[in-house]
Amino acid sequence: SVGSGKTLKITLDLADAMIDAGYKVHVDTAVEDGMDNPSEVVAPLAASASGKPVAGKGYVKSFTVTF
Fold first, then answer.
1. Residues 9-57: tens digit of each pLDDT
2. d(CA 32, CA 12)
3. How far apart are CA 49 and CA 37, in angstroms?
4. Can you give the C-alpha Rg of the chain in angstroms?
5. How far apart are CA 25 and CA 21, in angstroms?
């Protein structure tokens, strides 16, 4: 959960085999008494996409995956 205008940073361990294997990260968003946005952001788990922001379609301004 994150408030308006704030940044949420998540760090996780991911098997190297998942990178460049066709997987994608989907971010779903929702606001109490507001819209739900399934797959608001979809970012590929690809080395070529690392560090490149992806714009959200609703509540998320940008989303970046970094390896």
1. 999 999 999 999 999 999 999 999 999 999 999 999 999 999 999 999 9
2. 27
3. 22
4. 13
5. 12
Q: Is residue 5 part of a domain?
A: no
DSSP secondary structure letter of residue 49: G
Residue 52 in domain: yes
Q: Look at phi and psi of residue 64 and say left if phi exceeds 0, alpha if psi is from -120 to 50, else beta.
A: beta
- The count of structural domains within the chain is 1
- The answer to whether residue 27 is domain-embedded is yes
- In which domain, by residue range, is 57 found? 16-63
CB-based contacts of 46, cutoff 8 Å, min separation 6: 19, 20
Comparing CA positions, the residue from 10, 7, 28, 4 lying closest to residue 65 is 10
57 in any annotated domain = yes
